[in-house]
Amino acid sequence: MRLPYSIALVFAVVVGGCSKGPDLTGTWQSGMGGALTTYHFHKDGKFSMDVLYDACHVEVSGTYALEGGKLALNPSQSKVEGPEPKASELRSQAGQASRVTIRMDSPASFTLMPNDPAPLHINKVSPNP
Fold first, then answer.
1. By residue range, what is the domain housing residue 37?
2. How many domains does the chain contain in total?
3. Is 0.85 topped by the overall pTM?
4. Nearest to 25 by CA among 113, 125, 92
5. Which of 18, 50, 104, 129 is most open to solvent, judged by the fewest CB atoms within 10 Å of its CB?
6. In which band, very low, low, confident or very high, does the pLDDT at 41 lie, cut at 50, 70 and 90?
7. In whole angstroms, what is the distance from residue 50 CA to residue 102 CA?
Protein backbone atom coordinates (compact mmCIF):
# COMPACT_ATOMS: atom_id res chain seq x y z
CA MET A 1 0.00 0.00 0.00
CA ARG A 2 1.34 3.44 -0.93
CA LEU A 3 1.07 6.23 1.61
CA PRO A 4 0.56 9.92 0.78
CA TYR A 5 3.80 11.59 -0.27
CA SER A 6 3.73 13.95 2.72
CA ILE A 7 4.12 10.89 4.96
CA ALA A 8 7.07 9.62 2.91
CA LEU A 9 8.62 13.09 3.03
CA VAL A 10 8.44 13.02 6.81
CA PHE A 11 10.98 10.19 6.79
CA ALA A 12 13.34 11.53 4.12
CA VAL A 13 16.89 11.37 5.40
CA VAL A 14 19.35 13.37 3.33
CA VAL A 15 22.20 15.23 4.99
CA GLY A 16 22.43 18.74 3.57
CA GLY A 17 25.08 21.43 3.58
CA CYS A 18 24.58 25.17 3.63
CA SER A 19 21.20 26.20 2.35
CA LYS A 20 20.92 28.85 -0.35
CA GLY A 21 17.94 29.71 -2.46
CA PRO A 22 14.33 30.41 -1.57
CA ASP A 23 13.38 31.39 1.96
CA LEU A 24 11.23 28.65 3.50
CA THR A 25 11.15 30.13 7.01
CA GLY A 26 7.64 30.13 8.39
CA THR A 27 4.72 27.77 8.76
CA TRP A 28 3.37 25.91 5.73
CA GLN A 29 0.48 23.47 5.22
CA SER A 30 -0.66 20.86 2.76
CA GLY A 31 -3.90 18.93 2.79
CA MET A 32 -3.27 16.51 -0.06
CA GLY A 33 -3.48 12.73 -0.16
CA GLY A 34 -5.74 12.43 2.85
CA ALA A 35 -3.07 13.88 5.16
CA LEU A 36 -3.02 17.28 6.84
CA THR A 37 0.64 18.24 7.10
CA THR A 38 2.04 21.32 8.85
CA TYR A 39 5.70 22.22 8.28
CA HIS A 40 7.70 24.69 10.39
CA PHE A 41 10.99 25.83 8.80
CA HIS A 42 13.29 27.97 10.98
CA LYS A 43 16.08 30.36 9.91
CA ASP A 44 18.67 28.26 11.77
CA GLY A 45 18.12 25.31 9.38
CA LYS A 46 15.85 23.34 11.70
CA PHE A 47 12.39 22.06 10.87
CA SER A 48 9.48 20.35 12.56
CA MET A 49 6.54 18.65 10.95
CA ASP A 50 3.15 17.39 12.15
CA VAL A 51 1.11 14.99 10.05
CA LEU A 52 -2.44 13.80 10.72
CA TYR A 53 -3.25 10.80 8.54
CA ASP A 54 -5.75 7.97 8.88
CA ALA A 55 -6.15 8.36 12.69
CA CYS A 56 -2.37 8.58 13.14
CA HIS A 57 -0.32 11.54 14.36
CA VAL A 58 3.29 11.85 13.22
CA GLU A 59 5.75 14.38 14.69
CA VAL A 60 9.21 14.86 13.19
CA SER A 61 12.01 17.35 13.80
CA GLY A 62 15.53 17.80 12.49
CA THR A 63 17.47 19.93 10.02
CA TYR A 64 16.83 20.93 6.42
CA ALA A 65 18.76 22.40 3.49
CA LEU A 66 18.03 23.63 -0.01
CA GLU A 67 20.63 22.46 -2.53
CA GLY A 68 20.48 22.79 -6.28
CA GLY A 69 16.69 22.84 -6.50
CA LYS A 70 16.32 20.00 -3.98
CA LEU A 71 14.88 20.04 -0.46
CA ALA A 72 16.88 17.81 1.89
CA LEU A 73 15.51 16.84 5.31
CA ASN A 74 17.55 15.19 8.03
CA PRO A 75 15.14 14.06 10.77
CA SER A 76 16.72 13.59 14.20
CA GLN A 77 13.55 12.73 16.14
CA SER A 78 10.22 11.22 15.20
CA LYS A 79 7.17 9.98 17.02
CA VAL A 80 4.20 8.07 15.58
CA GLU A 81 0.98 7.55 17.50
CA GLY A 82 -2.13 5.79 16.29
CA PRO A 83 -3.84 2.48 15.71
CA GLU A 84 -2.01 -0.55 14.43
CA PRO A 85 -1.14 -1.68 11.78
CA LYS A 86 -1.07 1.86 10.28
CA ALA A 87 1.29 3.25 12.97
CA SER A 88 3.76 0.39 12.43
CA GLU A 89 3.62 0.96 8.69
CA LEU A 90 4.51 4.63 9.18
CA ARG A 91 7.35 3.79 11.60
CA SER A 92 8.80 1.31 9.11
CA GLN A 93 9.46 4.12 6.62
CA ALA A 94 11.87 5.95 8.92
CA GLY A 95 15.37 6.21 7.48
CA GLN A 96 14.51 5.97 3.79
CA ALA A 97 16.75 8.33 1.84
CA SER A 98 15.17 10.86 -0.51
CA ARG A 99 16.01 14.07 -2.33
CA VAL A 100 12.95 16.01 -3.43
CA THR A 101 12.83 18.59 -6.21
CA ILE A 102 11.27 21.85 -5.00
CA ARG A 103 9.70 24.55 -7.15
CA MET A 104 8.81 27.90 -5.60
CA ASP A 105 5.49 28.92 -7.14
CA SER A 106 5.35 32.24 -5.24
CA PRO A 107 6.70 33.60 -1.94
CA ALA A 108 3.68 31.92 -0.29
CA SER A 109 3.55 28.62 -2.18
CA PHE A 110 5.86 25.81 -3.28
CA THR A 111 5.51 22.41 -4.93
CA LEU A 112 7.47 19.26 -4.12
CA MET A 113 7.92 17.08 -7.19
CA PRO A 114 8.80 13.48 -6.31
CA ASN A 115 9.62 10.94 -9.00
CA ASP A 116 6.61 8.68 -8.39
CA PRO A 117 3.58 10.22 -6.61
CA ALA A 118 1.77 13.34 -7.74
CA PRO A 119 3.26 16.76 -6.94
CA LEU A 120 2.58 18.06 -3.43
CA HIS A 121 1.43 21.70 -3.24
CA ILE A 122 2.26 23.52 0.00
CA ASN A 123 1.06 26.96 1.10
CA LYS A 124 2.44 29.38 3.67
CA VAL A 125 0.15 30.10 6.60
CA SER A 126 2.41 32.38 8.69
CA PRO A 127 5.77 34.12 8.18
CA ASN A 128 7.91 32.77 11.02
CA PRO A 129 7.32 29.90 13.44
1. 5-126
2. 1
3. no
4. 125
5. 18
6. very high
7. 19
